[in-house]
Amino acid sequence: GGGPHLLLAALVAALCHDIDHPGYNNTLVVNSRSHLATRYGDEAVLERHHLYVTLRLLASPRCPLFAGLSLGAHRRARRVLQRAILATDMAKHADIVAALRGAEAPAPGHVLGALPHSDFCLVDAVVHAGDMAGQTLPFELAAAWGDRCIEEFTNQVKMEENLGLPVSMFMKGLDSIQQKGRMQADFARFVLRPLWAEMARLLPDALPPDVLPRLEAARELYEGWAALPVENEEGVTLDSDGQSTS
User: Which residues define the annotated binding site for Zn(2+)?
Assistant: First the structure.
């Protein structure tokens, strides 16, 4: 509930939540003492930047999406927009999943309602889930999204090493299909599955029925990658436990 202007605000948040993203995460932004960390502080740095760029666009005469709203409606729309973009910070992921687990399915049209005992509302969770929807797509698309993320991770490791900063170890060594498979399988099992299971429970009519089966199928394929044999420096083929297969 809340009116079409609040739905529009949620859609704008989904569209703009990563606008002007530099291709690396908040950890590197803060550790490198980036100008963004100077401007926004050390928490949710990139999310605050995405919000700032979005609000600047909306203030432009060329993008008058909220121009006709009353003062009160405009403030409510900005509030929805702000909450939803800031909710895409991965530091909030566990809290969002916990809030979803304590929620009951909303009445039709009430995705803006507050989640019980939390600072989040359901639209925050919807935008957060949309930000992490790549692995719920058909596998060809899911793998392509995964490859783009891994490319960013690899570039971030190089930047951290070049700057003499602590290296994000979970991003390192992803040039092998086995390590890539392990990372993606763990991400699907421990991060994505709990979130999407709750989304499917709360919004069954809003999601494609094969969201969870696709995610499970992707996880199984990634586990297959992780189990592929690999050759060591001596040319000996090893299984996934590091034992010789010969």
Answer: 17-18, 131
